[in-house]
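Changelog-linked ticket: 2-acetamido-2-deoxy-beta-D-glucopyranose example.
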Amino acid sequence: MASSLHSLYFFLAIFICSSVHAANVPPSNGLVLPVKKNVKTSQYYTTLEMGSNRVTINAVIDLGSQFLWFSCDSYTSSTYNPIPCESQKCEKVKGFGCIGCNQAPRPGCTNDTCIASPYSPFENLLYSEGFAEDTLYSKNNMKVFELPFSCFHLEHLTGFASIAIGMLGLARTEISLHKQVADKFELPDKFALCIPSDKGVGKIFIGGGK
Ligand SMILES: *[C@@H]1O[C@H](CO)[C@@H](O)[C@H](O)[C@H]1NC(C)=O
């Protein structure tokens, strides 16, 4: 079921993609991210920059996952903020309950944090992590402030292309990147995914193509 849904989405995405090309949309008309293919795993991934230090993150694209999550093991950022549990924001991101951490505080290890449940499609497992927010930067000069995401433990990255440390979920949720971009920039909630050949570079257009 899941895999047939995925192929349907890919079909739709390719279709939308050609109409975007025809309209020749300027990149400023939405958030644009690159897409590459990892040939070994056939996974498509994008490259994001996150936080005040603009840490580069390769994230596998999953049309069925709820939000962005990545390993924060070497992540530092002065604009990183955990989302407190029992807060309005926690309710908005549909977190439930509180998660803590018994080590020294760092991104991905804070007390009284709103629980996120990142889903690994490779293992078919949901994990418990804390929700956080930080700024996402794109190469076409868009900044998405306070983008909700969760950290994830490096050792749980089973099945991922080795170049990737996380996942960009593009499902129809309140906190997927396209919904966040639509809300924050008053753009239409739509995206197009132009997937590349083995060696090419494709693009995701988010909120553009008016
Ligand atoms: C969380 O609280 C416990 C108990 O007060 C404390 O030992 C621990 O260091 C705290 N963790 C963080 C990340 O602040």
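Closing comment: Example verified and attached. The helical segments are 2-23, 88-92, 177-185. The longest strand covers residues 143-152.
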